[in-house]
Specification:
The protein has 304 residues and is of the alpha/beta class. Helix content is 43%, strand content 19%. The protein has one domain: Alpha/Beta hydrolase fold, catalytic domain (Rossmann fold). The protein has helices spanning 2-18, 66-72, 98-111, 124-135, 156-159, 173-179, 183-193, 203-213, 218-227, 229-243, 262-267, 286-289, 291-303, and strands at residues 30-36, 39-47, 51-55, 77-81, 117-122, 140-146, 246-255, 271-279. It is globular and about 45 Å long. It starts with a helix and ends with a helix.
């Protein structure tokens, strides 16, 4: 653990120097590796008041949420983990189903002695978020779910046939050899093709995340997130069948140039009380392309 923490601190020093484009978390946030569910997650905790958990997706890390966390911290306790095998969290060989990763997050809440929390998620964070809300229904009070589908839910079988989503099946030893040392090139594809304005993801931001995904095992573990989708689809269907639709208020946010109004349509398959919203002028990378509009939508919903 000491060696791992040393590596984390070294990488933090490097990325802080190289990433003026990524908003830093305030010094008042406590940042530590926390043991949970057989692994260790890097977690940022700050502020005071009702709890909010924020979950990132692929191509990002928990760093993406800093602008919203800064706005929330005055009246909320904000918890921002890096998901299993991503960001500055540990890199276990297994455990990448979203149902299991939900247990990772529940373990963090237990360690922080937090019984109930609001939830804000994006991309793969949506998938972990649904598994969390569906398994721990008395612990999640509200959910903001942003611009990504849920395995096995709604039009999933057609969504995964989109040519833009070829990366869902791009994995294996030879694919890892192709990407090794070229992580930045691989990630540029996502930022360029899934955005409305690639220039909004500036050079410093790209270098920051490329450094995180170039860590040993990081890209392998990112591929494992996608490899788990088949089991995630089975798990999500079972969670819905067993528990029915979620009852808590949900804000389903689609990017104007990505999922759009379809995000709310999709989430209505798993939740009863859904309000839809749009981040205008943005592709999938809402916190990089239009952080002001995204922040306002989240803050307004959580203030209700």
């Amino acid at each position: 653990m000491i060696r791992l923490l040393g590596a984390v601190l070294a990488l933090l020093a490097f990325t802080a120097a190289a990433s003026a484009g990524v908003t830093p978390f305030p010094p008042s946030f406590k940042m530590e590796l926390m043991e949970t569910n057989g692994t260790s997650l890097y977690v940022r905790v700050g502020g005071q008041g009702p709890a909010v958990v924020m979950l990132h997706g692929f191509g990002d890390a928990g760093d993406m949420w800093a602008p919203i966390a800064i706005a929330l911290m005055k009246d909320h306790t904000v918890i921002v983990p890096d998901l299993r095998g991503m960001g500055l969290s540990a890199h276990p060989d297994t455990g990448y189903t979203k149902k299991n990763q939900a247990a990772d997050i529940a373990g963090i809440l237990d360690a922080l002695k937090i019984d109930r929390a609001d939830l804000v998620t994006h991309d793969i964070g949506n998938m972990v978020g649904y598994a969390l809300a569906a398994q721990y229904r008395d612990r999640i009070t509200r959910w903001v779910v942003i611009d990504a589908p849920l395995p096995g839910i709604g039009d999933w079988d057609n969504i995964i046939r989109s040519p833009l989503l070829w990366h869902f099946n791009f994995r294996g030893p030879d694919m890892e050899r192709l990407v090794a040392g070229r992580e930045r090139i691989y990630l540029d594809r996502f930022w360029n093709e899934l955005s409305a304005n690639p220039q909004a993801i500036d050079e410093a931001t790209r270098e920051h995340y490329a450094a995180l995904y170039a860590q040993p095992h990081a890209m392998h573990d990112a591929f494992e997130q996608f490899a788990a989708f088949a089991q995630d689809a089975v798990d999500d269907k079972q969670l819905l069948a067993d528990g029915g639709k979620l009852a808590m208020p949900v804000l389903a946010v689609g990017a104007g140039n990505s999922f759009g109004t379809g995000q709310a349509d999709l989430i209505r398959n798993v939740a009863e009380n859904v309000t839809g919203a749009i981040v205008p002028g943005s592709g999938h990378w809402v916190m990089e392309e239009n952080p002001d509009a995204t922040t306002k939508l989240v803050l307004d919903f959580l203030a209700k």
